[in-house]
Amino acid sequence: MAVSILKQAIGEIDGIRCKIVESGASMERAAFLRQLLEFNNYDVKEQKMVSDDTTSEPTYTIGVTDLTFNPVYAIYDFSLKTPEGGHVTPGYWLQECIECNPSYWLRHRAPHPPEGGV
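User: That's the sequence. What structure does it adopt?
Assistant: Structure tokens below.
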């Protein structure tokens, strides 16, 4: 899920209204999000979505029972913590890095060429 989508869906998982954190997630992604959100004291609900195609892997919908939860705000407000004790960054949330630099905005910046041509 992109960390730039502010509007989050509300759905029902196992008869309980939940804020949908991510849908269409793989089993590994669902396990990662479950571990992270439960570590941050959220009640996590998970629903397995089985497709008609028997060759494809099942996907999962992950939600939390806190209807005010928004992963974008939680990430950029530094209110989510990693099990290692650091802050969850956009790169960590998207599983792009395990030990992410908290200065995520500097990660892709190329150095400026020197002025004057020296």
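The chain has a mean pLDDT of 83.
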